[in-house]
Amino acid sequence: MDRAFSRSRCMVCLALVLGVLWMYPSQLAEAAQEGAKTPPATIKKIAPDLYFHFDFDSSNSIIWVTDEGVLVVDTRQHPRHAKDLIEKIKKITDKPIRWAFITQAHGDHYLGNQVLRQEGAILVSQIDAARIMDKYFDKDLARRGAFFKRHSYDPNEIKRTLPDVTFDTQMNISLGGKVAQLLYFGPAQDPGASFLYLPHVKALATGGSYATRSWANPMFTPSVDGWIAVLRKVLQMDVEIFLPGHGDTGTKKDVQEAVGFLDDLQAGVKDAIAKGMTKEQAAKTLQLPKYKDWRNADRAADNITAMYHLLTTGKSIYLDR
Known about the structure:
By secondary structure, the chain is of the alpha/beta class. It is built from 12 helices and 12 strands.
């Protein structure tokens, strides 16, 4: 009797565990990532006046140093992150931070805004990026709870801090006799996602629209075809080094691989839809083994679900809710 009861109780426990595994794959992936060790953020010197702040665990930043001052690309995911970045910049140069360009309205790229403004920087982004930062601020903050908890960061330290300056399709910033071009080619990973081009070193900061060997999150895009078109336009530019929002520095070959990933992901989900699969079935069964070792491959189910939603509704699973 007791053994029968124990077996019954074990079966109930097993059923509950399996239910959790089926219902919450993204949360489990996040929990697994919390326990995983990631390399510390480092700064790489790309050119005599250009530095790449590589943060595998979060998003990257770029530091352009001139005799007139510094331009920073992306302000990191929390005010403490931003303060850490400023401390590192001060070890490189004593010049003031004049500008901070936010490539896109994802919290890991802009939640350090308040610290850069306090440092004296002018915050700039594309118009749509600024609009999305404002509209989805609370939602964006909420979805980063696991990251804040993992790093013991208090989200209450973050204040909504929007850009001081916005642009439509292009804006030039001159510093130290050279020019940085802020460029918008239309919605890519999301509306407002923009690029910064430094012609004198043929370097392009891409934000999250291109990430090196990393699963590109389609939760925000209004069109994967539009996103691919933007990346193909970028490939036509005179660029020798790509400075992504996620992952290490890349080349044109790496960008082409990212385009191939988007093509393959979209084609795979379209095929699943044509076969009559539900989004849950597609997320469970669709395999992309070519990209199994890429960064964020553990979030494949979430990405497939987002793509399925986009292709069946014509709407972003995040921005249109």
